[in-house]
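User: Sequence in, structure out. Go.
Assistant: Echoing your sequence, followed by the structure tokens.
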Amino acid sequence: MATIVVMPFHWAADMNASFALARKLQGRGHRIFFLTIPDTEGSVRAHGFDWLPSFNQVFPKGELEKQSTSEIQGKAYGAAEFKARLRGMCELLRNNEISRATRAINPDLLLVSSGMPWVGIAACKTGFPVIQFSSTLISVEDWSVPPFRTNLVPDDSLLSPIRIMLAWKKLFLRRRFRNRAWDISSELKALAHDCGFPRDKIDFSVETWPRLLLPELVFCPKELDFPRRKIPEGAFFVEASIDVQRKDDSFPWSRLDERRPIVFCALGSLLTTKAAPQASRFFQMFLDAIRERPALQAVVAIGSYLKREEFDCPANALLVNHAPQIELLQRCAVMVGHGGFSSVKECILMGVPMLLVPLSYDEPGNAARVVYHKIGLRLQLEEVSAGTLGSCIDTLLEDTGYRDNVRRMSQKFVEIEERSPACQIIEETLAGSSARS
């Protein structure tokens, strides 16, 4: 039995994926601790795991709620606030934050989110084996795979690699001249120097944060990705890592009419906070589309900050703040969403075709993969209306090809989830570490 410390980013996608993997490791006899900021303690303990605090000085309890409240009022946290937090975390890491927090348990391995490369750099300083994990797809320069902030769908034409190449060139030019406020390269280089981490093990030619060239579990079967010319260094495409046992919110199941197909609509926690006005308009257009289709029933999860009384809700729609998504998808015919990677994977696992309206970050690339594999449809935001939403929902319900395709991919997801290559990689690393010691 090994002692494993899991360090996810505080976003739901990272937390939920790490819970799924941790539950499997726990079932195989390993002792699991989560090392996270104070605001995530309740969630960690509710899922049955031991918890250790980190970065208390930078993220005191209540900090995430404070940020959400500010953003719902239109006062977004920007690059300056992020950089201040980053520098605070880096200073704590220089002063052995990870070793301090884990001293009493003497871990055998650290599992660190690739969304926090600064933590990965300092984790290597501890001397314990380090494996990264990613709850998004890796977006590194590859002329067969476009950046995931674009809507490009590769094809067999001669122009496809040219379009993709130009998209990468444009991305790096834009970063060089326009997005420098969010560049964390100098902070990572300084931290790497202080922690003795090799600079050549940091890849700066990526779409998101610089990527550490360490072993990395990508929580996505390769069947969902675009075909790549080569696998990124250190990457292992493993199971989707979906926590089907996670503790979700209560739900008024008695209000569902099982005789009518259910269409579920959700935009995730970030968008309903950071872009509440846009989310509100989107939900109302969806409700207007559902009103015109009394043979359907809809469930709409509007998040914590939007109010149900603000919507003109038809009789065949149910508005809730949050929904138990895994359980609900088991009963759904279609999901309408923004293309968050966790939701896309959960729809595939449950065999549910999708209608996606990507808005930001990796959502365009996730939606492009859904289109590429013919497991759903997408609309651009400027195309969205009650009419277009309704028309796409009708297509997904009437064209059985989408459901057949997603069910085939679901079978592959289930098989890989049960085989759990992520656990195998972790245990091989542990065995190798034991042999060396």
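User: And one key feature?
Assistant: The first helix runs from residue 12 to 27.
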